[in-house]
Amino acid sequence: MTISQVRAVCPHDCPDTCALLVTVEDGVATAVRGDPEHPTTAGVLCTKVSRYTERTYHQDRLLYPMKRVGKKGEGKFARISWDEALDTIAARLTSAAAHDPQSVLPYSYAGTMGLVQGESMAARFFNKFGASLLDRTICAAAGGVGYKYTLGARIGTDIEQFQNSKLILIWGGNPIASNLHFWMRAQEAKRRGATLIAIDPYRSLTAEKCHQHIALLPGTDAALALGMMHVLIAEDLLDHDYIARHTLGFEQLKQRVSEWTPERTATTCGLAVEQVLQLARLYGESAQRGEPVAIRLNYGMQRVRGGGMAVRNIACLPALIGAWRHAAGGIQLSLSDSFPKNHAALQRPDLLPTATPRTINMSTIGDDLLRDASPEFGPKIDTVIVYNSNPVAVAPESPKVAQGFAREDLFTVVLEHFQTDTADYADIVLPATTQLEHVDIHSTYGHLYMMANNAAIAPLGEAKPNTEIFRLLAARMGYDEACFKESDDQIAAQAFDRRDQKAVHFDWDSLKQKGWQKLNLPDAPFADGGFPTPSGKCEFYCARMQDDGLDPLPTYIAPYESVASNPALAKQYPLAMISPPARNFLNSSFVNVQSLRDTEGEPHLDMHPQDAAARGISAGDRARIYNRRGAFSAKVRVTDKARPGLVVGLSVWWKKLATDGKNANEVTGQRLTDMGGGPTFYDVLVQVEKLN
Ligand SMILES: Nc1nc2c(c(=O)[nH]1)N[C@H]1C(S)=C(S)[C@@H](COP(=O)(O)OP(=O)(O)OC[C@H]3O[C@@H](n4cnc5c(=O)[nH]c(N)nc54)[C@H](O)[C@@H]3O)O[C@H]1N2
Ligand SMILES: Nc1nc2c(c(=O)[nH]1)N[C@H]1C(S)=C(S)[C@@H](COP(=O)(O)OP(=O)(O)OC[C@H]3O[C@@H](n4cnc5c(=O)[nH]c(N)nc54)[C@H](O)[C@@H]3O)O[C@H]1N2
Ligand code: SF4
Ligand SMILES: [Mo]
Fold first, then answer.
1. What sequence ranges are listed for the domain 4Fe-4S Mo/W bis-MGD-type (predicted)?
2. pTM for this one?
3. Is residue 504 predicted with pLDDT exceeding 90?
């Protein structure tokens, strides 16, 4: 028997991007472990990926190309050859090109975060074809834009510093579930005497284990940050030297936040005045004592109308108190701009037609699939090619998404590992390889290591990497540019711009051998200012926001749907609903892995005892959750983890594996965030009734 250890990378959309060691025995992957030497992985994987072989060798893996033989959505398919599959797709694309290539839409997100199996060959292909462009907004768009207005780029505090912080605000995130290796650092900080505070409407697994939990109303984080700034300025808990040298617009900020008294803040956020005062004082006074103070900002608060502004406001806080002076101070939302990714080489935008194709926002796929041709919209979407995503389960307002994908005149191709809710609507399903079966290179958004993924095993069945599928399609379409013949290793070798010697100091071959390599960056990114904004400063006043039609100063934008902002709607649908990630799933990935689904049980709805009693609902009852957009059902857990007026349905379930064939996205809406065109998954009012 030959046994080997292969260095790999967890490909999932998770900030931790763990270094994996895959044990291969006679060509079969038998175990996946966390690399003990990788500083952030530290030999630990989450429960999902420690069972990775269960997913890879799952009996339901798609192993052959298939064509649909039943109705759309029914899930009846018959095996076909690769030649038949590719010829059928190429014929469809050729006729679409003759009519209008923009009638073809690629739809992809972060099923794999790999730079090769994500947007490399696929992007080249669609650029050359002239397909509609896809704005990939579904996760991080609002917060990313808001953060960049204030700080210039998605750069921040290194995860490896957090154990030295004395105060950590875990703001809109549940790291025990979704950022485990950050939580390990926060635990270490706690052992060293740090205070941990969770800011979250829900008492999540993480909030439960923090010293304090501030349970504000969903979508009111921007107001809390304004109120904190008010107190910091009123009580002079400031770093005047840092403000003078490294910030822009302090006087205007001071005037603006003067309106945000602790009383107004408390009312807006549904908190006690004392909570606002105490939080701001703790934050400011720790810094005054010279202690490192850090914020782990996450995406929970940005899935609402004012999500971009919330992130923009919170990003102002560290500069006010001079927290950036310490390597263990500051803020981390995403570190992704730390990596000098070479998009031009990977994606080849130079192949685009001279008239840039229209852009479709992935968060409004429901409406857009149902739209007719018009001068404003352009051609009707006639062909969708889905890879690395499961829109029928994850996109907002699922009833419309499903209706769109059910269109008889729509031709849908899905590249997948499994027969997902989306694959059920495909005309052709193509089997894709998993991370154990292909090569890739990764940047991350939660740490600062470049990561190499070696193929551990041969592709299962007739599965092919995404890259190979687009290479074969390019050949069928007669594309003869050299970039369509590059191997995955050749693509990986171009992923980072090695002219950026400051950051990148390795080559692909050595990275593949070693598995990972830290970027060469300073420990404290903004200790001496140097923000990558136009002014070089942290912009309390941001002229770019004004240019973009936004308030140039921090402000509060209320949710579309809340009791305070929309009382008429709240009469019918009085409960706010959020649907954050379940610990044992990763978005909709892993829902079909039996052991993980068994741990989650079935779709639940957490509801406060008062709200349950008012509806005659007891623990364990099934309930119907509904609004104008749709309805789904779940088993109720009566718990004060949800604050009164809030219900929580951990997500994202495969619809077909839920009791009623539906999930939380039946009731979420397609209205977009203030910035970045992001979705508003957590900006939802519903009513709940007991099901008999
Ligand atoms: N196990 C697991 N891990 C994951 C994922 C997964 O599905 N499962 N998904 C991955 C992906 S794609 C992403 S984007 C990240 C997401 O990572 P995070 O954004 O950290 O997501 P969560 O961990 O669910 O944390 C969101 C928290 O925000 C809270 N929240 C909701 N609304 C608000 C609000 O208005 N204000 C505040 N302050 N808090 C609010 C929720 O109650 C929840 O506890 O996680 C990644 N990691
Ligand atoms: N209600 C609600 N909805 C949400 C969220 C929420 O919190 N609440 N979270 C949102 C967020 S943050 C995100 S990021 C999105 C995520 O949405 P998606 O990016 O669509 O994530 P997944 O649901 O995990 O689907 C990824 C799919 O890609 C497939 N895949 C993985 N690797 C490969 C590969 O190499 N090749 C191919 N062809 N396929 C592959 C997987 O099998 C999986 O089915 O969902 C969003 N939807
Ligand atoms: S999902 Fe996240 S925590 Fe789990 S192995 Fe992957 S990167 Fe690590
Ligand atoms: Mo996400």
1. 3-60
2. 0.98
3. no
